[in-house]
Amino acid sequence: MQVPIKRAIESVPGGMMVVPLLVGALIATFFPDTPKFFGSFTGALFSGALTILAVFYVCMGASIDFRATPYIVKKGGTLLIVKVGVAVVLGLIFGSILGETPVAAGMFAGVSTLAIVAAMNDTNGGLYMALMGQYGRPRDVGAYTVMSLESGPFLTMITLGVAGLSAFPWQTLVGAILPLVVGMIIGNLDREMRDFLSRAVPVMIPFFAFALGAGLDLSKVWQAGLLGLGMGVAVVVVTGIPLFLADRITGGNGVAGVAAASTAGNAAAVPAIVAAANPAYADAARPATILVAACVVVTAILVPIVTAWTARVVGRDVEEPAEENNVASAGKMTPAARSVVTEASH
């Protein structure tokens, strides 16, 4: 007897990402000691998000032709500027209204400029790359090598007017792009290796999603209440719309822009770091941490669904850039990479 598990999962918008992610989050929330209890390989499945992502990066890099490098810079730079630009505008607006302190009472108690900026300007890179592996062009994944500049408190501090109190370590940037570059070198040196490695990309998505979900605590949403839920939705809407439009203007179909409209997990640590650098934000740090953590959870669930819906609606209506068509016609795009583009149009 055959059970249509794969078909059932794929019937959910972004199912290969959303379903494993929710399973991991539910286990982490209600049975948090599961990885420690079983240990060994089972425990590794819960904590291996970075390792799986590193392998995912190498395999995806192998499917990218060197001729796509200008596209990666253009795409990543555009998404970076728009995402951070939205956070800067909101920082200026709410900074003039709230200053450094949070709202003290009422239904918006705990909201602060720090919370808003930290939630808005840092994209969940793993989520973006996994979604692009399923719904975007292979080289759209590489755009995160530029977008990784968002990571950490540096841009948040700049936005809040405390630039110079922290520095972005070059080792972190190099470490973020190195697996992709290695994969690109291997794939461009040997087309057979490109085809071999690129086949692993769709297979790793549910495993990465599960590990990502295992790091999310759904109780954070409960603690933050409707305010946290509303902020998470606001991140997707407020950053998603300009990112979608920017992606369309620069030749994309908008899917990559929507996939970038999330909050990174490490953004939850930013308020405390900012407060340590500038005591003026001490009162805002604790409620901001809870609200940003809620945004991480909400956007991790909502963005895959919205991305899947966007891919279905607009994926078929936008013509691919001429250079990508040339790559495909020249035999440079692997069957696995070509299938990713095809799936995005359905």
Automatic annotation (TrEMBL):
<keyword id="KW-1133">Transmembrane helix</keyword>
<comment type="function">
    <text>Catalyzes the proton-dependent uptake of 2-keto-3-deoxygluconate (KDG) into the cell.</text>
</comment>
<comment type="similarity">
    <text>Belongs to the KdgT transporter family.</text>
</comment>
<keyword id="KW-0769">Symport</keyword>
<dbReference type="GO" id="GO:0005886">
    <property type="term" value="C:plasma membrane"/>
</dbReference>
<feature type="transmembrane region" description="Helical">
    <location>
        <begin position="37"/>
        <end position="59"/>
    </location>
</feature>
<protein>
    <recommendedName>
        <fullName>2-keto-3-deoxygluconate permease</fullName>
    </recommendedName>
</protein>
<feature type="transmembrane region" description="Helical">
    <location>
        <begin position="168"/>
        <end position="189"/>
    </location>
</feature>
<feature type="region of interest" description="Disordered">
    <location>
        <begin position="321"/>
        <end position="346"/>
    </location>
</feature>
<feature type="transmembrane region" description="Helical">
    <location>
        <begin position="222"/>
        <end position="246"/>
    </location>
</feature>
<dbReference type="GO" id="GO:0015649">
    <property type="term" value="F:2-keto-3-deoxygluconate:proton symporter activity"/>
</dbReference>
<feature type="transmembrane region" description="Helical">
    <location>
        <begin position="141"/>
        <end position="162"/>
    </location>
</feature>
<keyword id="KW-0813">Transport</keyword>
<feature type="transmembrane region" description="Helical">
    <location>
        <begin position="103"/>
        <end position="120"/>
    </location>
</feature>
<feature type="transmembrane region" description="Helical">
    <location>
        <begin position="12"/>
        <end position="31"/>
    </location>
</feature>
<feature type="transmembrane region" description="Helical">
    <location>
        <begin position="258"/>
        <end position="282"/>
    </location>
</feature>
<feature type="transmembrane region" description="Helical">
    <location>
        <begin position="80"/>
        <end position="97"/>
    </location>
</feature>
<keyword id="KW-1003">Cell membrane</keyword>
<keyword id="KW-0762">Sugar transport</keyword>
<keyword id="KW-0472">Membrane</keyword>
<feature type="transmembrane region" description="Helical">
    <location>
        <begin position="288"/>
        <end position="309"/>
    </location>
</feature>
<keyword id="KW-0812">Transmembrane</keyword>
<feature type="transmembrane region" description="Helical">
    <location>
        <begin position="196"/>
        <end position="216"/>
    </location>
</feature>
<dbReference type="InterPro" id="IPR004684">
    <property type="entry name" value="2keto-3dGluconate_permease"/>
</dbReference>
<dbReference type="Pfam" id="PF03812">
    <property type="entry name" value="KdgT"/>
</dbReference>
